[in-house]
Design brief:
By secondary structure, the protein is mostly beta strands. The chain has a single domain, classed as Calycin beta-barrel core domain (Lipocalin). It is built from 3 helices and 8 strands. The protein has a 5-stranded antiparallel sheet with strand order 1-2-3-4-5, with no helix packed on it. β6 and β7 form a beta hairpin.
């Protein structure tokens, strides 16, 4: 499954920058130039996107959220001070989600609304990854009784988001 995004305002590609994690497991600083290369507004290319029906079925996504996912139009990626902001742009503005990631490797994670719109916050951090990529890692907090608190690591790969 993949989602194709094309730059709306500028040609941006993920480039070299932050390397793999250091041998001791210590996260490396994310290279600002790598992130600057992907900043801008990106439009979803619906012709190149694969159907997500199998993904939705596998994770038990409700029909309401399936319809909402089809309304996603793209992303806006911005550097604001020492934070990377990623906004998922939806045709219904109230469904758009903005996530903020600190650039410093040991900073407190950014906290934002969950992408799946369930209750409780989602926390995100950035780290250097192999081949000059930037990895976004997510953890979510379960607010139901008996769920044990923090959820799993939704570590995403790829460049700058």
């Amino acid at each position: 499954m993949s989602t194709a995004l094309a730059p709306r305002a500028q040609a941006g590609v993920a480039g070299a920058g932050a390397g793999a994690q250091a041998g001791g497991g210590e996260a490396r600083v994310v290279d600002r130039a790598t992130l600057e290369a992907v900043c801008g507004e990106w439009s979803k290319d619906f012709r190149r996107c694969e159907p997500m029906d199998d993904f939705f079925s596998l994770f038990g996504v409700s029909m309401l959220l399936r319809k909402a996912a089809r309304l996603m139009r793209g992303m806006r990626i911005e550097l604001k001070g020492d934070m990377l902001e990623v906004t998922q742009i939806c045709a219904l503005r109230w469904l758009s989600v903005t996530e903020a990631f600190p650039l410093a490797p040991h900073a407190a994670p950014g906290e934002h609304r969950r992408r799946d719109l369930r209750r409780g916050p989602q926390r995100g951090t950035l780290e250097g990854a192999a081949a000059g990529a930037v990895r976004a890692r997510f953890k979510w907090v379960c607010v139901r009784r008996g769920c044990g608190g923090e959820g799993g690591d939704g570590g995403g790969g790829g460049a700058a988001a």
